[in-house]
TrEMBL record:
InterPro entries: HD, Homeobox_regulator, Homeodomain-like_sf, HTH_motif
CDD domains in alphabetical order: homeodomain
Protein name: Homeobox domain-containing protein
SUPFAM superfamilies: Homeodomain-like
Localisation per UniProt entry: Nucleus
DNA-binding region as annotated in the record: 13-72, 90-149
Bias-annotated ranges (Gly residues): 153-163
Domain Homeobox residue range list: 11-71, 88-148
Region described as Disordered: 1-22, 62-99, 142-372, 385-404
Principal subcellular localisation of the protein: nucleus
Record-linked SMART domains: HOX (SM00389)
DNA sequence: CCACTAACCTATTCACGTC
DNA sequence: GACGTGAATAGGTTAGTGG
């Protein structure tokens, strides 16, 4: 099924691969042990603390569940049962996509059913909808609109009869990713990045300096949003209504970063449950070698070394003991000064150069807010020793970065809208 | 070269908001 | 309650990393 990515020539189509740091992996695994199906609130908190995007956390859990079910444990059971690990955590709230936003998306969809990361980000910019939501929108759209009548170049989803699961059949690579008309999102003129002709080195996307760069990817010189096209006629209601504040308080609805960040009631109760369930009193082990925590420390202003706790608590694979050092290996690894420097984004660090290296997840000065979720989870996790020791877990090590996308603020978005004279919608 | 795994995809199903 | 559609899950594939 996977669309045979027919075009190796489209370098920028995939998002840059994130390289998780060992500490981040440990944290993810620790949480995974407690709950393989974290809800939106937990994912967001974890994402914040780890300095990576929530969508990446979600993908990680997907892959992890799969990996897990593969290697051991019959996939049969863990089918997310309601009462399993506590109250089913809430899903992300529905994202309300306005008609005008839909129009933009539909337009783009007709041109390219498989937009790459650059195109998706461009759309995100144009619509104000977070990129991950756009990706989902396209997935749903493809599933529900089987590309009928070849109205455009490439189409004909040579697939089987409705439903003929390409699953087992050969995916007919041809159709996917139609050799589309220039991927231009229809509009005015999207930033070059979105056009991503086939052979262009990936843009300097959101990998490098997260908190520094406001508009990642598509950072085209010049105004990014330029292309925000809006169907002539309704510039006003474009601002998506974020679930969190339906009342529309324009209070800076974070366009890109998850909207529902605030109020995360579930986290508390979840932890509660976790603690109760695991019966772990509270195994915080002050770790002796505090050095490690700095790897991610910045994310937790007031919190003590969460990495430390993480390591100690997780008891890495074979150490059930709460305070025992995990594999000295990783620790040592984490403690590398170079890495720390890199993580901190300090110059002189051997870190990868943001420009061309893979995205390396890293901490970032984060939001002060809520107490560390990890802290609690890790403490709770202490009891479980992971039987499935991190498979090999090579170390991705150092890196700077983190992918926090900072999209346009509502104001900026509005401003962009204003700038638009009113491009004629190609379609309608 | 190869193993590992992040990123993506399809197919399905769940669930929320509307009518 | 039906319907439309966003969100999530399982499971398969592709491709970047690093040993």
């Amino acid at each position: 099924m996977a669309r045979a990515r027919v075009s190796p020539e489209k370098p920028g189509s995939r998002r840059r691969r994130l390289v998780l740091k060992p500490s981040q992996k440990d944290a993810l695994q620790a949480l995974f042990q407690q709950n393989p199906y974290p809800g939106i609130a937990t994912r967001e908190r974890l994402a914040r603390e780890l300095g990576i995007d929530e969508s990446r956390v979600q993908v990680w859990f997907q892959n992890q569940r799969r990996r897990r079910s593969k290697q051991s444990r019959p996939p049969s059971e863990h089918v997310r049962q309601e009462g399993e690990g506590g109250p089913t955590e809430a899903r992300r709230k529905r994202t309300v996509i306005s008609p005008s936003q839909t129009r933009i998306l539909v337009q783009a969809f007709t041109r390219d059913r498989f937009p790459g990361i650059a195109a998706r980000e461009e759309l995100a910019r144009q619509t104000g909808i977070p990129e991950p939501r756009i990706q989902i929108w396209f997935q749903n759209r493809r599933a529900r609109h089987p590309q009928r009548s070849p109205s455009g170049p490439g189409n004909g989803r040579a697939q089987g009869p409705g439903g003929a699961p390409a699953t087992t059949t050969t995916p007919a690579p041809e159709d996917r990713r139609a050799p589309p008309a220039p991927l231009m999102i229809f509009v005015v003129q999207p930033s070059p990045a979105a056009l991503q002709p086939s052979g262009r080195p990936p843009p300097p996307p959101q990998g490098a300096a997260p908190w520094a760069a406001c508009s990642p990817a598509v950072t085209a010189p010049g105004l990014p949003g330029q292309g925000a096209i809006l169907p002539p006629g309704q510039p006003e209601t474009h601002i998506p209504r974020w679930p969190e504040s339906p009342s529309g308080e324009g209070t800076a609805p974070p366009l890109e970063p998850q909207p529902q960040a605030p109020s995360l009631p579930s986290s508390t109760s979840l932890l509660d449950e976790l603690l109760a369930a695991t019966g772990v009193p509270d195994t915080q082990a002050p770790s002796p070698g505090a050095a490690a925590d700095e790897g991610v420390g910045p994310a937790l202003p007031g919190a003590p070394s969460f990495l430390d706790e993480l390591l100690a608590a997780t008891g890495t694979p074979d150490t059930p003991g709460p305070s025992l050092g995990p594999s000295a290996d990783e620790r040592a690894h984490l403690a590398l000064p170079g890495e720390l420097l890199a993580a901190a984004g300090l110059p002189g660090s051997p870190g990868p150069s943001p420009g061309s290296s893979p995205v390396v997840a890293g901490p970032h000065p984060a939001l002060p807010g809520p107490p560390s979720l990890l802290e609690e989870i890790l403490a709770a996790t202490a009891i479980q020793d992971t039987p499935w020791s991190s498979p090999g877990s090579p170390a991705g090590e150092e890196g700077v970065e983190a992918t926090l996308e900072t999209p346009l603020s509502e104001d900026e978005y509005q401003a962009l809208l204003d700038m638009l004279p009113g491009s004629p919608g190609p379609g309608a």
